[in-house]
Amino acid sequence: MESELQALRAENQRLLQRVAELERESAFYREAFEQSPVPISVFRADGLLAAMNRVTCEILGVPSREAVVGHYNAYEDPGAVSQGYAEHYRKALDEQRGEIVIMPPTSYTSGEEGMPCRDDHTFWSQTCMRSMEVDGARYVVAVNLDITERVRAERAMEENQAFLGGIIDNAPIPIYVKDREGRYLLGNQVFDEALAAERGGGLGKTDRDLFPPEQAEVFATLDRQALLAQTPIVSENQLMLGGELHTLVTTKYPLLGADGQPHAVCSISVDVSALRAAEAEARRLQEEMFRIQEATLRALSTPLLPIAEGVVVMPLIGMLDEKRVQQAMDVLLSGIAAHHASQVILDVTGVPQVNAQVASAFVQAAQAVRLLGAQVVVTGIQPAIARTLIELGVDLGGITTRGTLQSGIAHALAARA
Fold it and tell me: Keywords for this entry (predicted)?
């Protein structure tokens, strides 16, 4: 009897030790559950909340754990139902033990109908669920990963991309990006319109798919130069677009990746066809103006003045060269015919000197006048010119000379009479 009693005492002691161990183990797991930095909730198979740790309470902003545990039912919460929580709880219960069910990112606003909360705030979570069984009862363990900051960052990036995309797409000039292999990665609306393509119709294609081979090679060479130089380059090319020849000024610059290496080329083209046409027209008008100025100067430098019926005077001033003598001859010969002149006075009072070529051309002009039946009177020959004519042995036969323009006019008027 005593031995049996001792055995019972020993068994009782062992059981007490085991209970203490289990209590310590239970306390350990409860504390681990409670202190987990990840929100964890446990739901019964009927949707009733069975447990939630501290961080879950903080994120949801519930007034107390007692207010929701054993009271909140996910199947009865319109928000949980509409966002798919209830559906995924059931799915987790239907899965084999150990299978994980992952919900897509979901927003949750505390304070809405359903779970009671201290304040209103919205957060994003991604929930992973797995079923478990305890004493024959099924439960769903839900781990909520707070991805609010990630979602905010993604949304900020999406908004930034939409903002930049709006700028690029609504720009009135073609903007496009190609990878290192020359495939189009991006093209704005004006770029597609220039190609007469549907929206995004050029993406994935290369210049060889869109342009003649020689033009495609020019573009490929410029892309390689931009990638190698790693600085913007500017080029001007002519291209057939919509059946018309356009002149484009294109700036190409490399796009660098996270490693600092160029992985694509962005190009911005400006159609300067109208500008180049305006410049060409301006050059034409300038050339026309120069021609008019030259004709005016010729007329001013070789004026032909009718002073009486059948008498014209051409006063020459300044240095003479062969070109100017030729201009004078052209004006003189056409003027003789126009004015029916019989007396022509060439006044060289304002000419300081001439060279051999000019002297010879001058005499030829006088002889041409005589061939038209008019008499030539040369007035105002300076000593230097007279010396040159003598040294050259120029024959002035048939040419009347007078010392002054006044005496020359008197002679011409008398000869006409």
Answer: Coiled coil, Phosphoprotein
